[in-house]
């Protein structure tokens, strides 16, 4: 049995690339998300390619009442991961505050903030009992700087920043590392989801510059996870070279 990584939002984008990167290095995985068929196919591919154990787990992180049941369905040894990557998240809409859609706001808060908290709260006690673990939260440049119409999405990522710091303080005595990786613009399903499937709007986000690839973030996550026991990388802001700040992108 190798070391175990539990990844949320592994059906696509950054989470999927993290799954691949850790599998390549021999980690066994729990890959979770809502779209179980995608997770099953990713799990089969990675298991064959890298000869590791990959468990696909249907888990909507925003549904607190389902989390414990879902975790209980895992083989016992997979319920205490060595590394938890809290990656599941989304932006919905890009509207000025006074036109914001409350249901979309709720979904972003429920997923990006409450979901991260629910799952971490469920898994942390076992890490505390064991006296080791590493929680890596995926934040965003949007958590550092607010941009026009980013309002509630930016607020959820600012919350991830605060929660990461709070977890690090509270879990410090128990040998648990807590880190945040905050990417700038990365080309994934993120903008397709934000614009409700409108591919023209989504593609326009990445026009005229080279965005981050999900593999770039996965490499950074792997680097953070691979430090020696006495080193923790608290925080890593990783941007496309063409992006100076939130919304400040040099397009050709
Ligand atoms: P994708 O849309 O490609 O991936 C998002 C993942 O989150 C999917 O696997 C999706 O799986 C999962 N997810 C969404 N809602 C839930 C939920 N309720 N429960 C469980 N899983 C859920 O986008 P990215 O890979 O870009 O996004 C990953 C993270 O990176 C997010 O937290 C995002 O905010 C952050 N980020 C993205 C940036 C970017 O520019 N792309 C930049 C900075 C941060 P499923 O639909 O199967 O549930
Ligand atoms: C995603 C990056 O700048 O689109 O968190 O909000 S941004």
Automatic annotation (TrEMBL):
InterPro entries tied to this protein: NAD(P)-bd_dom_sf, Sc_DH/Rdtase_CS, SDR_fam
A GO molecular-function descriptor: oxidoreductase activity, acting on the CH-OH group of donors, NAD or NADP as acceptor
Family: Belongs to the short-chain dehydrogenases/reductases (SDR) family.
Keyword annotations from UniProtKB, A to Z: Oxidoreductase
Annotated protein name in UniProt: NADP-dependent 3-hydroxy acid dehydrogenase YdfG
Database matches in PANTHER family: ALCOHOL DEHYDROGENASE
């Amino acid at each position: 049995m190798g070391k175990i990584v539990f990844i949320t939002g592994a059906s696509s984008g950054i989470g999927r690339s993290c799954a691949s990167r850790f599998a390549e290095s021999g980690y066994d995985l729990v890959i979770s998300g809502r779209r179980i068929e995608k997770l099953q196919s990713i799990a089969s591919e990675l298991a064959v390619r890298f000869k590791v154990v990959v468990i696909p787990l249907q888990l909507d992180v925003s549904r607190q009442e389902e989390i414990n049941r879902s975790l209980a369905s895992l083989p016992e040894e997979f319920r205490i991961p060595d590394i938890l990557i809290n990656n599941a998240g989304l932006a919905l809409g890009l509207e000025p505050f006074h036109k914001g859609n409350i249901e979309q706001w709720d979904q972003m808060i429920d997923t990006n903030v409450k979901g991260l908290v629910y799952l971490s709260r469920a898994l942390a006690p076992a890490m505390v009992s064991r006296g080791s673990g590493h929680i890596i939260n995926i934040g965003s440049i949007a958590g550092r700087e607010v941009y026009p119409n980013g309002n509630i999405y930016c607020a959820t990522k600012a919350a991830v920043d605060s929660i990461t710091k709070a977890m690090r303080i509270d879990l410090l005595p128990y040998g648990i590392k807590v880190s945040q990786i905050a990417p700038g613009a990365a080309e994934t399903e993120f903008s397709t989801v934000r614009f409700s499937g409108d591919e023209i709007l989504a593609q326009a986000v990445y026009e005229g510059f080279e965005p981050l690839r999900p593999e770039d973030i996965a490499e950074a996550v792997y680097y953070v996870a691979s430090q020696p026991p006495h080193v923790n990388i608290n925080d890593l802001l990783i941007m496309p070279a063409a992006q100076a700040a939130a919304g400040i992108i040099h397009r050709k």
